[in-house]
Amino acid sequence: MYVIVGLGNPGDKYARTRHNVGFDVIDLLAEQNGISVTERKHKALIGKGRIAGQAVILVKPQTFMNLSGESVGDILHFYKLDPAQDLIVISDDVALDPGTLRIRKKGSAGGHNGLKNIIAHCHTEEFMRVRIGVGKLPPNGDMIAHVLGRFALEDRRLVELSYERAAQAIDCILSEDVDKAMSRYNGKVEVS
């Protein structure tokens, strides 16, 4: 079973912000695969189903971003899963341009507090992640205001295309493996 976690903050106030791209991809995966992500369990909204023939739990932690690991750690412990094999985390990345994906098998938190908390609760940096570019912080900008802000119209289109690519990449991870997904989907989306 795979646990696919989209990071974000609960509540309408944070909907469609840069920090909530993980929630947006979970919503897309749920819609594409007929999974209802409405069950309240493990400090999260979860939904169980199948993607690419694999059993999955889609997860939207409700702990707020900086405490995401509380929810993720609880789920992995409850189902006795190995983060290196069974966990995929979708998050925003301010080091990447909008429309860019970076898929990795493991790595540091890279300054992302949600990932940092997951690493702390899972006691490992070894879990798959799909990072979605949301744009760099403008000079003299405020990081909190940036990640809790919404996209400019031209960036919104790129980001929504990257959601589609992220969903395809996750399908590839589940049906083939993470190395294939990295070689096919890392990089910037092509706009036609």
Summarize the model shown.
The protein is α/β, with parallel strands linked by helices and 192 residues long. The chain has helices at 21-33, 68-79, 83-86, 113-122, 143-147, 153-175, 178-185, and strands spanning 2-6, 39-41, 44-51, 54-61, 87-93, 100-104, 128-133, 187-188. It has a single domain (2-188), classed as Peptidyl-tRNA hydrolase (Rossmann fold, 3-Layer(aba) Sandwich), CATH 3.40.50.1470.
Tell me what you see in this structure.
With 192 residues, the protein is an alpha/beta fold. The protein has one domain (2-188): Peptidyl-tRNA hydrolase (Rossmann fold). The protein is built from seven helices and eight strands. It has helices at 21-33, 68-79, 83-86, 113-122, 143-147, 153-175, 178-185; strands spanning 2-6, 39-41, 44-51, 54-61, 87-93, 100-104, 128-133, 187-188. Strands 2-3-4-1-5-7-6-8 form an eight-stranded mixed beta sheet, with helices on both faces. A hairpin with a 2-residue loop joins strand 3 (44-51) and strand 4 (54-61). It starts with a strand and ends with a strand. The mean pLDDT is 96.
Radius of gyration: 15 Å
Percentage of residues in strands: 15-25%
Order of helices and strands: EHEEEHHEEHEHHHE
The oligomeric state of the chains shown is single chain
Number of separate helices:
7
Global morphology: globular
The description of the largest β-sheet is: 8 strands, mixed
| Beta-strand segment tally | 8
Named CATH architecture: 3-Layer(aba) Sandwich
Question: What is the arithmetic mean of pLDDT?
Answer: 96
Structural class: alpha/beta
Q: What's the number of domains?
A: 1
Helix content: 25-40%
Under CATH, the homologous superfamily reads Peptidyl-tRNA hydrolase
- The separation of the N and C termini measures 36 Å
Runs in which pLDDT lies below 50 for 5 or more consecutive residues are none
Text of the CATH class: Alpha Beta
- What do we call the CATH topology? Rossmann fold
